[in-house]
Each structure stands twice: as structure tokens, then as C-alpha cells.
Amino acid sequence: MPHRIDRMLNQLKLSGVLGKIKGVIAGKFTDCKEPDNTKNTFTVDEVLENYLGKLKVPIIANFPHGHTKHIASLPIGGKVRLNGISGTVEILESIVS
Predict the structure, then answer these.
(1) Of 7, 68, 66, 11, which Cα lies nearest the Cα of 41?
(2) 78 Cβ contact list (under 8 Å, min separation 6)
(3) 97 has a pLDDT exceeding 70
(4) Of all residues in the chain, what percent carry a pLDDT higher than 70?
């Protein structure tokens, strides 16, 4: 649900982490809607825009990563280059030794 994403991003903002990041890869948020149609809540896209929209870093949204059927594996701790305009991720170094 969007309020959970809001809570997590707010925690990163309050801790100062969002001010230190160099890029963002956001996965696909499937089934992430408020189930109660009578509640006037933000959508996931609105939450992401609120926290990430003013950052001057590359941002890729709807990346096929996470809990979806088709996923791309990303290295943990490896260097990558994000292109927010084309929506691409380039792995810059081998992480397998």
C-alpha cells in the first residue's frame, strides 16, 4: 500500500540518507493500492514523486526487480551506472571472483 512506501521513504529522508544517495532504482509496485476506495490517499507514483522528484540524481522507476514474475538481478555492492533518461542500468564491474 502507498502509505507503507511513504513511511519507508520518510524514514530515509529523516535519517538524512536521501540527501546522500547517487541514484535510485525503484521496482515495479504491483498490487500496491489502497483497498478502501473511500480513502483519499496518494498513489505510489505520487509518493515517489514527493520524495524523489526534487533529487538531482538519476532515477529509474518500474525496473523489473523485486517480487515480480520477470526480474533482473542486481549486484549488491557493485558499481553501476544509471541513466534516468533511457531507464538503463549498466554494471561496471564484475562482482564474481
Answers:
(1) 7
(2) 91, 92, 93, 94, 95
(3) no
(4) 99
CB atoms within 10 A of CB 48: 20
Determine the average pLDDT of the residues in 38-52.
88
Assigned domain for 96 exists: no
Confidence of residue 47 (pLDDT cuts 50, 70, 90): very high
pTM (2 d.p.): 0.77
Stated length of the chain: 97
Query: What is the share, in percent, of the chain residues with pLDDT greater than 90?
Result: 33
- State the CATH number of the domain containing residue 18: 3.50.30.60
The number of domains in the chain is 1
DSSP of 35-89: S-TTS----HHHHHHHHHTT--S-EEEEES-SSSSS-----SS--EEEETTTTEE
